Amino acid sequence: MRAFDDTMVGPEDDEVAADEAEDEFAKIFAGEERPRTLITTKIHASAHAYPFVRELLMVFPGSSFYRRGHYSLKRICQFAANRGFTHLMVVGERGREVASLLLVHLPLGPTALFRVTSARLGADIVGHGNPTRHRPEVILNNFSTRLGHRVGRLLGSVFPHDPEFRGRRVVTFHNQRDFVFMRHHRYIFSDDGKRARLQELGPRFTLRLKWVLAGPFDTRLGDFEWFHRGRQLGTGRKRFHL
């Protein structure tokens, strides 16, 4: 029932492969550049945002937290880029719940804003484990269009791509009908090594893409690559973009 999308990408698309070999994330995926992420919050963040930030710091290797203060996002982007950070991540709230996640690739973009729903901390997940500092494997699943590939690579670029398999950590971004489900697990093997199960570490949350800017954060003068127009403008319930 899905509406046809002429930007769907096949498994062996030479044009897409050539584009991705030279895009903003190519050095990170090739292991030539180490990702470093600065994580902050909205201005006047409530106490409910910080436990979520604390768990994000355990998910993303090379990440650091800085308090927002009263600085504008443009100034924070410049501050982070000048200090060698490759990404800026801003956690937003609505009421007492985490409601948005802004992800900026530094210094030249792109920038993506996601709506966050169904966020749960590891401590609230029954049978959860405690993550280690090992670099995780990263799974990007079902990003099938040109836009999906771009968003998937932006999410994947926050991680170094030389996982430490000894840690048995896996971070998954699974796209289903334009809802991106983030899960953080660890493999647990039986004593005889013949069976394996997954133990969730947390946090878990769902992302919904709102817009993508071609450059760094600038919603007034920036060039939007894509933005969610809403069903009222005819996108339809059968049209999926990622």
Structural commentary:
There is one protein chain. This protein is an alpha+beta fold. The chain has one domain: Brix domain (Rossmann fold). It has five helices and eleven strands; from the N terminus they run ααβαβαββββαβββββ. The protein has helices spanning 14-20, 26-29, 49-59, 73-82, 146-156; strands spanning 37-41, 63-65, 87-94, 97-105, 111-120, 137-141, 169-176, 179-189, 196-200, 204-213, 224-227. The longest helix has 11 residues, at 49-59. It is globular, with a radius of gyration of 18 Å. The mean pLDDT is 89.
Throw out a few tags for this protein.
11 strands, Rossmann fold, 11-stranded mixed β-sheet, 242 residues, alpha+beta
Tell me the structural class.
alpha+beta
Biggest beta sheet attributes: 11 strands, mixed
Strand content: 25-35%
Global shape: globular
Number of continuous helical runs:
5
Low-confidence spans = none
What is the terminal separation in angstroms?
16 Å
Helix/strand order, N-terminal first: HHEHEHEEEEHEEEEE
Provide the gyration radius in Å: 18 Å
CATH superfamily: Brix domain
User: How many domains make up the 3D coordinates?
Assistant: 1
The level 1 CATH classification is Alpha Beta
- What is the CATH T-level topology? Rossmann fold
Whole-number mean pLDDT: 89
Q: So, CATH architecture?
A: 3-Layer(aba) Sandwich
Helix fraction by DSSP (H/I, runs of at least 4)? 10-25%
The beta-strand count equals: 11
Describe the secondary-structure layout.
Layout: H1 14-20, H2 26-29, E1 37-41, H3 49-59, E2 63-65, H4 73-82, E3 87-94, E4 97-105, E5 111-120, E6 137-141, H5 146-156, E7 169-176, E8 179-189, E9 196-200, E10 204-213, E11 224-227
Parallel strand pairs: 1-2, 1-3, 6-7
Antiparallel strand pairs: 3-4, 4-5, 5-10, 7-8, 8-9, 8-10, 10-11
